[in-house]
Design goal:
Helix content: 40-55%
Oligomer: single chain
Strand content: 5-15%
Structural class: mainly alpha
Shape: elongated
Number of helices: 11
Order of helices and strands: HHHHEHHHEHHEHEEEH
Distance between the termini: 90 Å
């Protein structure tokens, strides 16, 4: 079956992206293999490792064929590539990156480093211009392909992408659910729902709960999240809460029961914890606390 001269832009861009992703996967695997080696030794040889990986990818793709791994996955190949252009392709993707990494790795000459940065900026500008030309022309999305004159060709007769209604329905449903969750979930007051449901469930009477003064030490945990209290606060019982944990409940409701001792906590009693003992409270403060406890009973 003869190959088709037309190749869609999206297929060419996808092939380039697949090539980049394959290289990144191999690079990450090498990092995992060498993660227990001394860091300074690996960093010293990182440019050589990257160059070797690019050579291996080239060796098993373009050296013996006409397509990269990304193109093979999408049934593409380079139309007029030969051995000379294949070697030049390897040089253009390996040598500039290797030179840049070695220059940045060593001390080097500051003037030379500045010159190389300018060259890199010019190369990025040319890549951008080539991308604009590609969007208009539809061939050679990468600058190296344009310099070597190797446009992509399809290995099969061109057929438009067939996207079934079931696939489109799943995609629309998924995106709709994602928008619903990301927009709706932050608007739901889960603390309010929790306290509303809790109030509907009959509970046994715990009896008279005496209000006490909180004390905090190195083993104290938040009564709600059971973690070390962050910006500790209390609201009338002997337990400490994180600032967010306590105020999140008071945003939902003005009163709620401590989930440990069952003391009724009120928003007006919320205070920042101060490192002082109960004996340091004045008699008037203690009398108010006892009177408040009497009202609760």
């Amino acid at each position: 079956m003869p190959s088709s001269p037309y190749v869609s832009r999206i297929n060419q861009i996808d092939a380039a992206q697949l090539d980049d992703e394959i290289y990144k996967v191999l690079r990450n695997q090498v990092k995992r293999i060498t993660e227990y080696q001394p860091v300074e030794r690996i960093d010293r040889w990182q440019p050589e490792i990257d160059a070797l990986l690019k050579f291996l990818v080239w060796n098993f793709s373009l050296r013996g064929g006409k397509s990269t791994f990304g193109q093979q996955l999408l049934n593409l190949h380079y139309g007029n590539i030969n051995r000379t252009k294949s070697v030049l392709y390897l040089i253009l993707i390996v040598v500039p990156a290797y030179t840049r990494d070695k220059l940045l790795d060593g001390a080097g000459n500051r003037r030379l480093s500045s010159l190389f940065d300018r060259i890199a900026n010019v190369a990025k500008l040319l890549e951008f211009i080539n991308l604009l030309i590609f969007l208009h022309r539809g061939t050679q999305p990468r600058l190296v392909e344009y310099l070597l004159g190797i446009p992509s060709r399809s290995t099969t007769t061109h057929k438009p992408r067939n996207i079934g209604y079931s696939y489109m329905t799943r995609e629309l449903l998924w995106h709709g659910l994602m928008e619903l969750f990301t927009t709706g979930l932050p608007m739901i007051n889960f603390h309010y729902l929790k306290h509303t449901i809790k109030n509907l469930i009959p509970r046994r009477n715990r009896g008279n709960v005496r209000r006490s003064f909180p004390t905090m030490n190195s083993t104290t945990k938040c009564a709600y999240c059971n973690d070390t209290p962050i910006m500790p606060m209390h609201a009338g019982c002997e337990h400490i809460f994180c600032y967010y944990c306590l105020n999140a409940h008071f945003v939902a409701t003005n009163e709620f029961e401590c989930m440990v001792c069952g003391t009724q906590l009120r928003v007006q009693d919320a205070k920042t914890y101060e490192a002082r003992s109960a004996m340091s409270y004045s008699k008037d403060e203690a009398a108010k606390m006892i009177e408040s406890a009497g009202h609760d009973s």
